[in-house]
Design a protein that fits this description.
- The complex is a heterodimer of chains A (144) and B (399).
- In chain A, α2 (30-63) packs antiparallel against α3 (69-92).
- Chain A contains five helices and no strands.
- Chain A is elongated.
- Helices cover 86% and strands 0% of the residues of chain A.
- Chain A has one domain: nmb1532 protein domain like (Four Helix Bundle (Hemerythrin (Met), subunit A)), CATH 1.20.120.520.
- Chain A has helices at residues 3-26, 30-63, 69-92, 96-128, 131-139.
- Chain B has a domain at 266-399.
- In chain B, α5 (141-167) packs antiparallel against α6 (175-207).
- The radius of gyration of chain B is 20 Å and the shape is globular.
- The two termini of chain B are 35 Å apart.
- Classes of the chains: A mainly alpha (144), B mainly alpha (399).
- Chains A and B meet through α1, α3 and α4 of A and α6, α10 and α11 of B.
Chain lengths: 144, 399
């Protein structure tokens, strides 16, 4: 399995969990939604960690591109983190409209972010880095 | 140095897309005013009215959207985008006004002025966009579709110029031949291929669906373009129109199946708009080979397809970009998408739009006033919602 396949699969898993959370919130199943959102958040943050701690530094070192796409990806991760904090708050307050509104922004942010990673960053990483070694290193942090 | 295709840092200024979209909606409302005027004077002129929508509304939206999408989707960065967009925005707006007014008044001076402005503007920006796209290595299917759409746009413009010269008696070419090719390249080669190419990217992204089959994303734009070239060389072959219609019917069916099997199941007026647009794409595409029997009906069917997509896209893009730009600029608790444009306002617009479409059943009875009223309401509401969204951005920036 190369970097693209490994990390793209993680994107899909997170998307799938979020779609279920959204459905539960919409139907007013607050307790289940809160539990599942926790799982979604943990999975997403673990995925970010794999990229920020392992993939991006290696990519920057090998390509010499430091202030470029990886910086944008980190910034978008931070935007996603902020949104997830606010969504957690909305869940606690059982504020459906606030949650769905934040979720809409999060979903589009994440989808366009994933698109850039999957179409540009991951294929370049596969090209420049030792894919198998990178996947092993990322797997050591845990499974999404 | 960041290699081509990796310029993800680049987020075009919000003012670019905002001004193109607001201008597009202003043209849509201007078109309604013209229709009212023609209704009361009893002097209906199809060509200028259609071009207020195809140039003023549709092309403004599509060029504005390309300024946004080229760097983000294709990694094709237009340097000094703000300055270039300003030139194009002024040229497209002025050219459209002169051309449509000239066609309406049968004034060759005004129409030629408009045509020259449009030619300078579009032959400046379209080749530039193409050049930027050609420079990107390993272009993905969606931006490759943009290339075919933009080339078709250029060809459509050339046919348009010949038609204007013909119309005012400067040239004496075969009007029917030029008109058919102009319409086919503009509606299917440029508009429908661009919509399809954008959808390859955004349907999956906005609604979390499975991707389109590779044979559609890879071959549809090139296949349609080849059919249009064939149609230019062999205009008498009726089957080419059938083939174009069938390709887009197939595409629309695939889009509908993507949407019905989407993972995000919450109610969303924008999904309804996509369904509506695909239904009307199917209707217009199947009617395309028979358009000579009722050109106005074909144009209405195709127009509803495009208007529905534009509504679905603008209502998603503007709120997202307002949040994204403010958030990137470090605004604490930047307004979320629902705060930029409230979903209930989008739902209301959707219902008004549905009523507008239903009102078209009165057209064969020669009752036009109801449609005029509800379509005007639709465009005013659309304009107000989008403009309010843009003002949310301006207000937060001032803070």
């Amino acid at each position: 399995m190369n970097i693209s396949q490994y990390l793209t699969e993680e994107h899909r898993k997170c998307d799938s969990v979020y779609a279920d959370v959204e459905k539960m919130v919409n139907e007013g199943e607050w307790e289940n939604a809160e539990k599942l959102f926790k799982e979604f958040k943990e999975k997403t943050l673990l995925h970010f960690q794999k990229e920020e701690d392992i993939l991006f530094p290696e990519f920057e070192q090998k390509t010499g591109i430091v202030m470029g796409p990886t910086q944008v990806m980190r910034m978008e991760h931070n935007q996603a983190r902020e949104l997830m904090e606010r969504m957690e708050e909305a869940l606690k307050n059982k504020n459906k409209e606030e949650f769905l509104s934040l979720g809409e922004s999060l979903m589009i942010l994440i989808q366009q972010h994933n698109m850039k990673e999957e179409q540009i960053l991951y294929p370049m990483s596969d090209q420049h880095l030792d894919s198998e070694e990178m996947v092993v290193k990322m797997s050591e942090l845990g499974e999404v | 140095m960041i290699p081509g295709g990796l310029q993800l840092l680049y987020l075009p200024p919000f003012s670019i897309i905002a001004r193109f979209f607001i201008t597009a909606l202003a043209f849509a409302n201007l078109g309604m005013l013209l229709l009212f005027y023609q209704y009361f004077t009893g002097n209906f002129n199809l060509t200028p009215t259609v071009h207020l929508y195809t140039l003023g509304f549709m092309a403004s939206t599509m060029i504005g959207a390309l300024f946004q999408m080229l760097p983000v989707v294709a990694g094709a960065v237009i340097e000094n985008a703000h300055k270039k967009a300003t030139i194009v925005h002024i040229g497209l707006t002025a050219g459209t006004i002169f051309l449509t007014y000239g066609l309406y008044k049968f004034s060759s001076g005004l129409a030629f002025t408009g045509l020259v402005i449009l030619l300078f503007t579009l032959f400046y920006i379209v080749p530039l966009m193409l050049f930027k796209l050609f420079k990107v290595k390993d272009l993905k299917d969606a931006p490759r579709g943009f290339i075919y759409a933009l080339i078709s746009f250029l060809i459509g413009i050339i046919f348009a110029s010949l038609l204007v010269l013909n119309f005012f008696g400067v040239l004496h070419l075969n009007h029917g031949y030029l008109f058919n090719l102009h319409m086919s390249f503009m509606l299917y080669g440029w508009t429908a291929v661009l919509v399809a190419s954008v959808s390859f990217q955004v349907i999956e992204m906005f609604f979390v669906t499975s991707p389109y089959p590779k044979f559609i994303t890879k071959y549809l734009p090139a296949f349609v373009f080849s059919l249009l070239i064939l149609k230019t060389l062999l205009p008498e072959i009726f089957l080419i129109d059938f083939a174009i219609g069938l390709v887009f019917t197939l595409y629309a069916i695939y889009t509908i199946t993507r949407l019905t099997s989407r993972k995000r199941k919450i109610k969303d007026p924008l999904i309804n708009l996509w369904y509506l647009s695909m239904a009307f794409l199917i209707l217009s595409s199947l009617f395309f080979p028979f358009r000579d029997k009722n050109l106005l009906l074909f144009l209405i069917l195709f127009g509803i397809f495009v208007l529905s997509v534009i509504m679905a896209m603008m209502y998603r893009i503007i709120p997202f970009l307002v949040w994204m730009h403010l958030s990137t600029q470090g605004v604490q608790k930047a307004p979320t998408m629902f705060e930029v444009i409230k979903p209930k306002f989008i739902w209301w617009n959707f219902y008004i739009y549905l009523i507008s479409i239903l009102s078209l059943i009165f057209i064969p009875l020669k009752i036009y006033f109801i449609s005029l009223i509800v379509f005007t309401l639709n465009f005013v509401f659309f304009f107000v919602n989008i403009t309010r969204g843009v003002f949310v951005y301006i207000r937060y920036r001032k803070k």
